[in-house]
Structure formats: structure tokens, C-alpha cells
Amino acid sequence: MPFTAARDSRVHYEVDGQGPGPGLALVHGVGGDAEKVFGNVVGHFADTRTVVRPNLSGSGRTEDDGAELTVDLIADQVTAAVRDASDGPVDLLGFSLGAVAAAAVAAAHPGLVRRLVLVGGWTHSGGPRDSYYFETWRKLLATDRELLKRFSALTGFSAATLDRFGHDGLAQSLADPWPPAGIVRQIDLAGQVDIRHLLPEVTAPTLIVGFGGDAMIPVEGSRQLHEGIAGSRLVEIPDAGHMDWFADPTQLVKLAGDFLDD
């Protein structure tokens, strides 16, 4: 399992494939990790690319000093993993908080990012609804972890996807040891995001994917990314929840693959 250094952190990342195409970095969001979020996706790309999956602070085996997380830090962790694992410009796909990190990397290191895909992302957490949401997440974590799981499922997946899981599938999700201990710092960071000033610095061709039925990170966040990144392309998937693609990544893989191979 490879590690690299970024600031005061020891960044753990996964790397798969050695294909001839450009490298691809996949960046997870709050409470996720390299395997939980992208384990069902990496195989679609590893035949033709080197795929790097960094674990942000609080996830996987990444270690740091335990201080408050910042967007700059997680962007530096992604940058360090990409540079350690691949040569030349890479394509970068970030999901949720990972989209925030990916946009920050593209803004700070334009020569490192060939193409950018931002999935279920947002620009800032200052609005009343977003502040209320992340405060609720934090209070649930401190009060009852099972309630946090239930709340995350109800806001993260669409009603149709939850019904497809069935009673047994939902019971299994409650038995999962998630969330990791490090989620508390990631939630705190999510509640303080503001990358609006960075978006004009993003020059890589950018695809933004938003989910029309997203009750966790509303699609307005993707629309704001689109407005802030010149020349970006926005695709909205109607009725989809924030994490529906975990259950079936086919549509997202096709959208991202077609854009990255164009």
C-alpha cells in the first residue's frame, strides 16, 4: 500500500492499472474512502490507465496531526498522491467533498490536471440550508450513530434506490461499521467550504455532474460550479440521489469515460 507525504500528513493511496492512457485520480467524499466509494468503478478504467485513489485525512490509513481540516490540506494530499503515482498531467474526478478538493487542485496546479470531472459537488456551505444540514449531521454523530446512518441513507439515496435495496439490504447497511472515526473532521470541513474564489482559476476542460433528486448536496451546488468555471459542461441526472450511483455506476462511468476520452 503506497504512502506519500503532504504537509504534516502521511497520505495513503491505492493505485491500479498501468494502461497507456493518461492517469486518472478518483477522490472520495465525506465518510468515504478509496475502496468504499470507488471500488466498483476502478475496474472500468484500470485496463487503459493508471488509476490513483487517495484517502483524505480521516479515511483509510492516511495519518496526520489531528488538526482541523482545510480545503488546502486535502487538495495537497490529492496532489501529492497524484505526483507520487503517475507521470504527466492526469484526469481528475472528485465526488462530493472530493469534488471540492479536485476543483482546488485544478485551480492551484493547472499543469497537473488534463481534464476535470466534478460529481455531486458544491461551491460553499454558507447558505442556511447547507449550514443546517451539516450541523444536523454533526449532532447526530455525537448523539446516535445509527440515526446518522439512517439520516445519511434517507438523504443520500433516492426513494426508488432505497426501495430496491429492500428490507434486507437496508438492515445490512445498519450493520456496516461505517462511519469511520475520522468523519467528524470531514463533516466540520464540509460545513466550512468556500471555493468560489478558486473557480475562475480552473482552466482544465470540466464536466460537472449534478443529481436532480439530491437531498444531501442539492443540484444547485453543481449549477454554481458550472457558473463559476468558464467553459464547463453541466449534466444533470433527473431524480437521482447523491449516492445512487454507488448501487449502479453505469451511467456515471459512461458520462465520465466519454468526456475523458473525447
Question: How would you portray this structure in words?
Answer:
The protein has 262 residues and is α/β, with parallel strands linked by helices. It has a single domain (3-261), classed as Rossmann fold (3-Layer(aba) Sandwich). Helices cover 42% and strands 17% of the residues. It has helices at 34-38, 71-85, 97-108, 128-143, 145-156, 159-175, 183-190, 220-228, 244-247, 250-261, and strands at 3-6, 9-16, 23-27, 51-54, 90-95, 113-119, 206-211, 233-237. Strands 1-2-4-3-5-6-7-8 form an 8-stranded mixed beta sheet, with helices on both faces. Strand 5 (90-95), helix 3 and strand 6 (113-119) form a beta-alpha-beta unit.
Q: List SSEs in N-to-C order.
A: EEEHEHEHEHHHHEHEHH
Q: What is the residue-averaged pLDDT?
A: 97
| Fold-level CATH name | Rossmann fold
Biggest beta-sheet profile:
8 strands, mixed
If helices are DSSP runs of H or I spanning 4 or more residues, what is the number of helices? 10
Q: Main sheet: which strands, in order across?
A: 1-2-4-3-5-6-7-8
Summarize the structure.
By secondary structure, the protein is of the alpha/beta class.
Give a topology summary.
Layout: E1 3-6, E2 9-16, E3 23-27, H1 34-38, E4 51-54, H2 71-85, E5 90-95, H3 97-108, E6 113-119, H4 128-143, H5 145-156, H6 159-175, H7 183-190, E7 206-211, H8 220-228, E8 233-237, H9 244-247, H10 250-261
Helix pairs in contact: 2-3, 4-5, 4-7, 5-6
Q: Which features would summarize this protein structure in a list?
A:
globular; 8-stranded mixed sheet; single chain; 17% strand; Rossmann fold; alpha/beta; 262 residues; 10 helices
